[in-house]
Amino acid sequence: MFRVLAADSIAKEGMAALESESEVSVIYGKAEDIQDPESIDALIVRSATKVTKELLTRFKNIRIVARAGVGVDNIDLDAATENGVLVINAPDGNTISTAEHTFAMIMATLRKIPQANQSIKDGKWSRSSFTGAELSGKILGIVGLGRIGTELAKRARAFGSKVLVFDPFLTTERAKTLQVAPVTLDELLESSDIITVHTPLTKETKNLINADNLSKTKKGVYLINCARGGILDEEALYTYLSNGHIAGCALDVFVQEPAVENRLVHLPNVIATPHIAASTAEAQMNVAAQVAQEILAFSKGKPVKNAINLPALSNDDFQKIYPFYELAKVSGQFLSQSFSSPIKEIKITFSGSITEMDTGLVSRGLLSGFLQPRVDRIVNDINATLIAKEQGFSFGEKYSTETQGYENLIEARVIGETESFSLQSTFIYGYGPRVVNINGYSTDFDPEGFLVYIEHVDRPGVIGRVGKLLGDLEVNIAAMQVGRKMAGGEAIMMLTFDKELDQDILLKIKALSDVVSATTINL
């Protein structure tokens, strides 16, 4: 009997797949109340139960933890992986719920519905105080066109809005299919009547909308955030709401939650909800049904779609392929940070001894490493190919006999609309992973740590100027690799540092004579 503990408030109607299976037993209750934790094979949680190392030690026979929702902040992924526990989630179950909530917030803000409702409850009939605005004919700017942004775009067009999108990874073909106009962030801020954000919260998107660029927006603009607290700079937002530049704002998420003491929520032109965008009966049923199906598949030894971490496998084949998997994963991260244009295709070519192995895991590792910084969901080795399809680019692998003298060789090539980027790497037993070629430039370095990739003209003094600049700034270079195709032509430098390079230093490198570009790559 495969025993499943539903530890939090899980929609029981979504558990039908498990409840109807004769070889599965579902128990409902809190983890701390279970008297025989060693009998539990699977655990389903929402946000209340914290899946810690201690909990996993107590429930030592659990092999899968399912989060009935998207976020896994309450699950210790490192401890789960260390214990051979697969972690899954339900990333698609609340897409419609969140998109609809965002749309409702837009309409409520434009028509001042919450304020009018409160007024009439207070015994007033102030019709002239609540003159609103129509969505029809307005320009809606969407920052981030993932699953939720896509659903929102469809609804906005149905209401007669023109949709602008800022998403660095949006291809021309996908934009055309969705009937949206791809623009820069500045263009979106300058042109939009309503701005809504739908990106993950990363170091790049934290305070993405801030005091500096809010000044570029139209007077009377409306801002919406039902994604993650911190994408909008709350201090800047307060200033621009207070002086009337922003006509209205709708917030479902905040930097600090609960946000009952946040001064934003007390402004008259702000409407707020307590992080409930995903809180519908349908969404809760959907996420329960998704994880129930996944656990049922797992119990029968079948693959699951929404794995967060890599399953711990002990067979010989996995041990042989794992070094190449790690190399491919970091190669994908390198490519993603090096190539900022929209993607049409990724090709991966295997040569040498690796062609005798099952390279599927390696390919998925490279793809998931590449996609993770680019989409608003958790990417894993199983769902990476599906997400690539959603993003509108193709992915393929092939074998070759061209090893270029190495025992094994992996080449990954990213092809965009106007340019491409390639990376060749190898794994040397007893020595480790090495990147041996970048865009046709021969090199040799360990893909790890804090790197800066510099393209420059091959002229005397360029390397010296970079070294002198960093020396004057007391920045230590841990390692340096250089490469060129021909004397006096194009050349590259790959610098390794002990810590991440400050952006102001990177700008100074870019300003040096004969330096064409400089990109930070953190692996």
UniProtKB/TrEMBL annotation:
<feature type="domain" description="ACT">
    <location>
        <begin position="451"/>
        <end position="523"/>
    </location>
</feature>
<dbReference type="InterPro" id="IPR006139">
    <property type="entry name" value="D-isomer_2_OHA_DH_cat_dom"/>
</dbReference>
<dbReference type="InterPro" id="IPR045626">
    <property type="entry name" value="PGDH_ASB_dom"/>
</dbReference>
<dbReference type="InterPro" id="IPR002912">
    <property type="entry name" value="ACT_dom"/>
</dbReference>
<keyword id="KW-0028">Amino-acid biosynthesis</keyword>
<dbReference type="InterPro" id="IPR045865">
    <property type="entry name" value="ACT-like_dom_sf"/>
</dbReference>
<dbReference type="Pfam" id="PF19304">
    <property type="entry name" value="PGDH_inter"/>
</dbReference>
<keyword id="KW-0718">Serine biosynthesis</keyword>
<dbReference type="InterPro" id="IPR029752">
    <property type="entry name" value="D-isomer_DH_CS1"/>
</dbReference>
<dbReference type="Pfam" id="PF02826">
    <property type="entry name" value="2-Hacid_dh_C"/>
</dbReference>
<comment type="pathway">
    <text>Amino-acid biosynthesis; L-serine biosynthesis; L-serine from 3-phospho-D-glycerate: step 1/3.</text>
</comment>
<dbReference type="InterPro" id="IPR029009">
    <property type="entry name" value="ASB_dom_sf"/>
</dbReference>
<keyword id="KW-0520">NAD</keyword>
<dbReference type="InterPro" id="IPR006236">
    <property type="entry name" value="PGDH"/>
</dbReference>
<dbReference type="InterPro" id="IPR006140">
    <property type="entry name" value="D-isomer_DH_NAD-bd"/>
</dbReference>
<keyword id="KW-0560">Oxidoreductase</keyword>
<dbReference type="GO" id="GO:0004617">
    <property type="term" value="F:phosphoglycerate dehydrogenase activity"/>
</dbReference>
<comment type="function">
    <text>Catalyzes the reversible oxidation of 3-phospho-D-glycerate to 3-phosphonooxypyruvate, the first step of the phosphorylated L-serine biosynthesis pathway. Also catalyzes the reversible oxidation of 2-hydroxyglutarate to 2-oxoglutarate.</text>
</comment>
<dbReference type="InterPro" id="IPR036291">
    <property type="entry name" value="NAD(P)-bd_dom_sf"/>
</dbReference>
<dbReference type="InterPro" id="IPR050857">
    <property type="entry name" value="D-2-hydroxyacid_DH"/>
</dbReference>
<dbReference type="Pfam" id="PF01842">
    <property type="entry name" value="ACT"/>
</dbReference>
<comment type="similarity">
    <text>Belongs to the D-isomer specific 2-hydroxyacid dehydrogenase family.</text>
</comment>
<protein>
    <recommendedName>
        <fullName>D-3-phosphoglycerate dehydrogenase</fullName>
        <ecNumber>1.1.1.95</ecNumber>
    </recommendedName>
</protein>
<dbReference type="Pfam" id="PF00389">
    <property type="entry name" value="2-Hacid_dh"/>
</dbReference>
<dbReference type="InterPro" id="IPR029753">
    <property type="entry name" value="D-isomer_DH_CS"/>
</dbReference>
